[in-house]
């Protein structure tokens, strides 16, 4: 990682540490937009990291999102960062990304804060299709609060007029990877919370961590976190190279699976205390449960990835596992010869 | 906290991988009944071919028949062989852990005597650690070795030694002194000639009917003094370092890979939605486990301690190997036969051992807990 990338991430982490508290998250859940946090991030140029003139790594937004997941930042950072990249410029007006079947019905987190939304029509491509999407840019004319569910942040249904359309290569894969990155960060924090709780909480005269049943549950939890983090890091490292959408699909699948298992085990370890609104555990676990369903759940991406594997055929199974969607042959050998990054 | 660096394979490793794939293409005859479990394909002729290519003992000094290549390069070769179902059982243990053991702790004479044969794919070793009364609690081994004259005399019984009925040597963990307050003192390792008259080998059939592992009885078995590995009483440290190698490889998640291949073959014409989803799920797990295994290999290359990471990969990998046939069987008709049914049955017969061999699930979870600071 080079100096400027390190600087961006350290700056973001400093801001998150200063602003993002359990109380801030609770206020956000009640509908209060974290304006001071938003302004601090904007002032440091963190929304513009995809500006080509800055020469920062293309995958940097995903590293930022891992951090955002670690702090359960109650902002639509993924949408802001990716919208700026897709538009190839910081938009003149506040722009977000939402999912919806038509310009009349787009769901967007914190929708009321934005005057333009980029509409994604389907979270996962159909069979045998690539992940490129035609994205409509919609000028917002109305927003209506939508059902919360697991949201923990206000969700709006946004309506408006189509202004223009962009073609975004691998849009679905980018959105899926954004959720994998957020989950990857949150999973790490949940593991830390479980370790801390098990070492501090005492019953029967000793900390929970001394009981084998607890040790084993946390071991399983840690293994799932490690797998989700590895799948996500691998996809981020592969970003932009041939075969990266397959890596992104694998990351969304693996992180989504881990999200459910880790949430369940973490709540089990935390006992009744962890089940309260007052304890911050739910601020991470409910986000994990929400993010695993956003931009395609595990079964949808499994179906897409399975189709890619079937396309390759039985004799190419292992090549698929090692190289994802990258075609065997000259492309791989060229990159091998020049020592460039391999997925 | 959990150290799994995203690892790009260097160019020389990618080139090597192409070479291994080409080699396997040329030697398809050895892959006739492929099974990706590392214990079930015993083929000395194939092992010698690999040795001739320099693909056994790859990381060892050239003076001992090695190629002085990196752990990452070794990793690439071993995963290609396992994924293809190549018969590697004969030389696998010797290559994986006996060689590293002798390089780290063996005398120059032992290194010169044993390593070249292993690297050539001609000399095969088994492990003599477990006993009828000592499985997970390895420190409790009771097989004794007493110094007598110019050597040792061994009495006791070893259990579960894979390949001992066919291999040349056994590295036996024996008690040579008091266990002490730590319970880990007084243990040593001796290289035993499995073909000696005073070593009794009794094959044990597993539940599938195959006799791959053995009970070994020592009754006043004599072993020369120069077969002591390292120093007297150093046995526990030796087996601990062997275990890291034993637990960290791709064999810990690839045992059921052939089942995936056969499912793709069957599903290709008209895949059901269940099959498509299951294949994607299995692919995502294989891709992830492989990335984690490569990461461990790169940590080994940098001489880092991999006890926690290796245990995590083994925990995930072994449980996945067991879950795979359970999921695949329901994605095809109950009366589906052919190569998929054969692969499924082969895997189910081996499956209980996946989370027992090389450290049980319960022990590994304890290792992970310790690595996380819970114990």
Structural features:
heterodimer, A: about 350 residues, alpha+beta, five-stranded mixed β-barrel, two-stranded antiparallel ribbon, 12 helices, B: about 375 residues, four-stranded antiparallel beta sheet
Question: What report would you give on this structure?
Answer:
The complex is a heterodimer of chains A (343) and B (375). Chain A has 343 residues and is of the alpha+beta class. Chain A contains twelve helices and seven strands. A five-stranded mixed barrel of chain A has the order 1-2-5-4-3. In chain A, helix 1 packs antiparallel against helix 3, helix 4 (60-70) packs parallel to helix 6 and helix 8 (244-270) runs antiparallel to helix 10 (298-312). Chain B is globular, with a radius of gyration of 21 Å. At the A-B interface, helix 6, helix 7, helix 8, helix 10 and helix 11 of A face helix 1, helix 7, helix 8, helix 9 and helix 11 of B.
